[in-house]
């Protein structure tokens, strides 16, 4: 089993671009989205991230599926922020309501979160994990943190393959023929994957310890940084940051 987001990163036209220049752009957009107090600026950051995603030729289906999970989580959080105890200025449902202040706060939080998520998905959909790990090591991030990220990344694919194989075997034995059988099969599948995860994590840890960690694996060669790309990306981020600052001071 493969991850569509990871596949998109390997096939992206931006795959040949330097990890540094893509990280500066996406992290810059993330920081603006996370710090702005203006819903308009958050919307502009999100629109820029989506536009850059289109420019990077990320398949629309991949982007939508990647955004679905975070969007549901953000929506739930936004609802909890909007609801207040007692009657609200805008609407009331029994003991809770929504007033103008809570609604605006919820919209701002949701807008900022969606914009930041779009920026991170842009980075993930254009940069394979191996490039990110190599970039982290070149940036002098502690080796322990890089090792944990590498082991987690490797383990994800191993567990996905195990889950797919077990699910196929259960389907062949009519494990999902009805609701009762499906619930039992899901329970057995979860238990089996958990046991395999524990076992393979232990083996990976022992293997890495035996060879001194993943730092002994050759790094991905650093790509040449495109000065025009960095300048344009920096100008975009600085422009959005200026709009955010102006809105905060207004």
Task: State the gist of this model.
This protein has 250 residues and is mainly alpha-helical. The chain is built from nine helices and three strands, in the order ααααβββααααα.
If you had to describe this structure to a student in words, what would you say it looks like?
The chain is mainly alpha-helical. It has 9 helices and 3 strands, in the order ααααβββααααα. Strands 1-3-2 form a 3-stranded antiparallel sheet. The longest helix has 32 residues, at 179-210. The radius of gyration is 22 Å and the shape is globular. The N and C termini lie far apart (51 Å). The mean pLDDT is 85.
Strand content: under 5%
Classify the secondary structure makeup into a structural class.
Answer: mainly alpha
Fraction in helix: over 70%
Mean pLDDT: 85
Distance between the termini: 51 Å
Outline the low-pLDDT stretches.
Answer: none
Shape: globular
Strand order of the largest sheet: 1-3-2
Q: Please trace the helix and strand order, writing H or E for each element.
A: HHHHEEEHHHHH
The largest pleated sheet is described as: 3 strands, antiparallel
Q: What is the helix tally?
A: 9
The total count of strands amounts to: 3
Indicate the radius of gyration in whole angstroms: 22 Å
